[in-house]
Specification:
alpha/beta; 13 helices; SKP1/BTB/POZ_sf; BTB domain-containing protein; BTB/POZ_dom
């Protein structure tokens, strides 16, 4: 990919470039692809960008670097303005669009600007930048931002990764990062499945009523347990399980289940205690990669 062009476009119908009011004093002129000029001091570009530092490095004979003239870049005016504001220490632009953020990050990588990259790292964690958790997870993995990757992974728990609408985000992830995310979602499902088979939950197999010793078939619990696992598989966050335990048909059958012996009719499940323990189980599941 060509990063910088020294020759102006040949289309004579293109209007004369305008100079950006914030960047009109410098010895280097950068031109955006949509016809806006940015005049910036060479010294600023050299100390903030590895790319321009290499371009403007002094020749071996020690003579001053010649004025490079106008450099025609591939970025649009908004991307270039955002990048240069960060490089020059000017007030930060408003970045509330994820596509604009992607364009800015491409420029940050291309021109090797660690300062703007650190600023973007802070921006993506602020409420003003609305970014899809899967997109944020991808960015964090791409740049090695471990804390941000953990945060984003926890935000993905409200999504079903197998939903077709998320495929584009997942296809961009490195294989290792994708496997980490899949493992997190699966670990919550399997962790809850295992916990629902442990004490104080019944196994779901036939047993005897603790009051009258009548044989009890705990099929209602088996069906409810299966419904809970399906729900957390589709939404690993588990926040919809509590409401479901109030009105799912499988839940209603559980709470109404009694010992079949007419002289006993003991309730088989303690609803409030079961709800409490299930909620506690979900809260203890892993939340981040």
């Amino acid at each position: 990919m060509q990063l910088v062009r020294r020759d102006p476009p040949h289309d004579v119908s293109t209007p004369a470039p305008e100079c950006h009011p914030l960047f009109n004093d410098g010895d280097v002129t950068l031109a955006s692809k949509d016809g806006v000029l940015f005049r910036v001091h060479m010294h600023t570009l050299r100390i903030t960008s590895g790319f321009f530092r290499s371009m403007f490095s002094l020749p071996q004979d020690g003579t001053p670097t010649a004025n490079p003239g106008t450099l025609y870049l591939e970025e649009d005016r908004h991307t270039l303005e955002s990048l240069l504001r960060m490089m020059c220490g000017l007030p930060l632009p408003t970045i509330d669009d994820s596509d604009a953020l992607d364009n800015l990050l491409e420029a940050v990588e291309k021109y090797d600007t660690p300062g703007p990259l650190s600023i973007v790292r802070l921006l993506v964690m602020t409420p003003t930048v609305e970014i899809h958790p899967l997109r944020l997870f991808g960015l964090a993995c791409r740049f090695g931002w471990e804390a941000e990757a953990r945060h984003a992974s926890s935000q993905t728990l409200s999504y079903n990764l197998y939903d077709e609408s998320h495929r584009a985000f997942l296809q961009r992830l490195p294989t290792g990062s994708l496997l980490q995310l899949l493992d997190l979602h699966r670990s919550r499902r399997e962790g809850l499945r295992a916990r629902l088979n442990d004490h104080p939950f019944v196994s779901g197999a036939s047993a005897h009523c603790v009051s009258c010793q009548t044989i009890i078939d705990y099929h209602t619990w088996r069906e409810l347990k299966y419904r809970i696992i399906l729900e957390i598989d589709a939404r690993p966050l588990g926040d919809t399980v509590e409401d479901g335990l109030q009105d799912w048909p499988e839940a209603m059958s559980c709470w109404m289940a009694k010992c079949p012996k007419p002289e006993c009719l003991r309730a088989l499940y303690d609803k409030m205690e079961t709800l409490r323990v299930i909620k506690d189980c979900i809260e203890k599941l892993p939340r981040t990669i």
